[in-house]
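User: I'm writing a tutorial on reading structure tokens. Could you give me a worked example: one chain, its sequence, then its tokens, then a sentence or two explaining what the tokens reveal?
Assistant: Sure. Here is the example chain.
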Amino acid sequence: MRVIGPLLTAFTFLTRLPVRFDTPADQDVGRSLAFFPLVGLTLGVLLAVAASLAATLPPSITAVGLVALLAAMTGGLHLDGLADVFDGLGGSHGDRGQMLAIMRDSRIGAHGALALLLVVLAKVFAASVIIQRDALWAIVLFPAVARWSVVPLIVGFPYVRDEGLGRSFRDDGSATELVWATSFTLALLVCAGVRSLTPTAVALAAAFGFGVWMRRRLGGLTGDVYGAAIELAEVAFLAAATRGG
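And here are its predicted structure tokens:
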């Protein structure tokens, strides 16, 4: 398996970190799915370092900073998808075509704004508890697990649009990339220990359940749905991790 092209492609599409790969081959886009958890791990390590540097600040302030830093490092890509999906859900009145049209609109409506607010607040509150308990393992892991949890959706569910960035991931990705991504994630969980299993299971259930629901609504998934699933998986992992040490 070629490594450099897919790896750089994953970082280029999922982050705003100073890693650029301007001309990925078509197959590199699909193969980059194998490296989604590694991208997430990189984000998590950077967040944990930032949390350690801010150890003298109140946990709530640090949590706000971490959520803002994550949004900055990802360019708000997944948050944008979340807003688009919930605008579509709220404004389409069950009409599939109208929902897809609303999701293409770059403007954020009331439903999308509310979804953003709730997700950001949930992340801040959960991260604050985790920081207060000095459970930085959860800060390291949650971006990796969330990005892994979307890989089964990309590989296993149909893509509903005829074009779009998400279509490239879906068309060129395969079970091979899912196996690689899962193997890497399992290695992380082994290192983190038993405490990581419940948050991981909850995050995967949130992403997969959301994917099933959206497939029933749309007949398939879109890039916005992928982004929303990542956001929901992040919230689910952090919320579940507040119950552990």
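What the tokens reveal: The longest helix spans residues 110-132. Residues 87 and 110 are 7 Å apart (CA to CA).
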